[in-house]
Amino acid sequence: MQHSKPDAMDDAMSRTRTNERYPHIVAILRQRGYVTHEKLAKTFGVTVQTVRHDVRKLADDGEVCRHPGGVGLASSIIW
């Protein structure tokens, strides 16, 4: 049986509380730039719907930018 190298995101946490996930989501995005909802759900051991809720909160706070199927860092450029 061959084991694949663990993804850094998979090491983040298994199941976490909502307020504990927020800074981890932002940290992951700083490393990757964009992540799918499915990958975040797997990383944190929660449902995709839970991730969408977290992303919505972070987007409302201006920390991330929502995209179809995923999330990216919010731009630091102000027009």
Share of β-strand residues: 5-15%
Overall average pLDDT: 82
Radius of gyration: 13 Å
Order of helices and strands: HEHHEE
Note the gap between the termini.
Answer: 53 Å
Keywords:
alpha+beta; single chain; disordered N terminus; 3 helices; 3-stranded antiparallel β-sheet; 46% helix; 79 residues
Give the helix/strand layout:
Elements: H1 18-32, E1 34-36, H2 37-44, H3 48-60, E2 64-67, E3 70-73
Antiparallel strand pairs: 1-3, 2-3
Characterization of the model:
There is one protein chain. With 79 residues, the chain is an alpha+beta fold. The chain has helices at 18-32, 37-44, 48-60; strands at 34-36, 64-67, 70-73. The chain is globular. It starts with 17 loop residues before the first helix and ends in a 6-residue tail after the last strand.
Brief account:
The chain is α+β, with helices and mostly antiparallel strands.
